[in-house]
């Protein structure tokens, strides 16, 4: 019975994720219309494949199951190495950023799916997103600890060590955040974001003293993290929460910091306070999420992002809150749509109906 369920999940994974994986780079395009590969989106997307591979490995009582586990895990390795190739091409930027802290010296947030090349200029996108780099490093650490062989050479080890230096000052580095638009006015103004600080803290803790070659490694392949930097990140994170940043009093992105995948906050009271702020204040009509000229047009109207319900489901699973899991599973089931062959799909968002708003063209 368990194997039948795993095979069903495997079909879903192939139909929704792996069928879109580039055979050369291993990267995943954002959508049918947007062919670029975002670092953050690729990492989160491949987690389902990694988790399914672990499940097959755990229950592998036949050679066929072992083969399926290996196939899934190699798809994960391929994507993670594809992202590594994208970033390692910008090694000079990583080196420069350690000294300049300039947004123009940051790693890019998205790349060409087919070639791993950059797709927009340094100043044409809010590239500095420390949470994206951190979530890559966090899962690189966890995947390596699970037995995957992602890093193949000492040059790559040295680059990962450099990425540690890149994110370790997250507690004092203003970036563009998970929404890529900067502060609350969406004007591309960088600011210190709790979601970036928290994810960096989690990544640093996961990588500290980790051997990137696994059981075949030695002293040269071990990553080192300064304990003081982790402590600085924790202190600043605790002082920011439950706010998301100076300009944003709350943000759903904090769910990834107080619960899965970062689990970066040790104070249970602060975790619960932040969660309640997200639940209550994001229903407040007096929000400021748009271009200044758009604010009046969108008064009392907000897009809905069902994605964040999955965070509440996962949070409920990890905290043992069955009632919360059930509540958000029912909410999620209500918005799922049927794709090709009846595959259930989760919409990215529900936007404002055209008859509810007037539209104007803004110069950027």
Automatic annotation (TrEMBL):
Gene Ontology biological-process annotations: glycogen metabolic process
Membrane topology: Lipid-anchor
One function term, GO molecular function aspect: calmodulin binding
Pathway linked to the protein: Glycan biosynthesis; glycogen metabolism
Listed transmembrane segments: none
Pfam families linked: Glyco_hydro_15
Location relative to the cell: Cell membrane
Keywords for the protein's UniProt record, in alphabetical order: Calmodulin-binding, Carbohydrate metabolism, Cell membrane, Glycogen metabolism, Lipoprotein, Membrane, Phosphoprotein, Prenylation
Domain GH15-like: from-to ranges: 4-356
UniProt KW Phosphoprotein keyword: yes
A GO cellular component entry from the record: phosphorylase kinase complex
Record has S-adenosyl-L-methionine as a keyword: no
PANTHER family, alphabetized: PHOSPHORYLASE B KINASE REGULATORY SUBUNIT (PTHR10749), PHOSPHORYLASE B KINASE REGULATORY SUBUNIT ALPHA, SKELETAL MUSCLE ISOFORM (PTHR10749:SF4)
Family: Belongs to the phosphorylase b kinase regulatory chain family.
Quaternary organization: Hexadecamer of 4 heterotetramers, each composed of alpha, beta, gamma, and delta subunits. Alpha (PHKA1 or PHKA2) and beta (PHKB) are regulatory subunits, gamma (PHKG1 or PHKG2) is the catalytic subunit, and delta is calmodulin.
Role according to the record: Phosphorylase b kinase catalyzes the phosphorylation of serine in certain substrates, including troponin I. The alpha chain may bind calmodulin.
Name listed for the protein in its UniProt record: Phosphorylase b kinase regulatory subunit
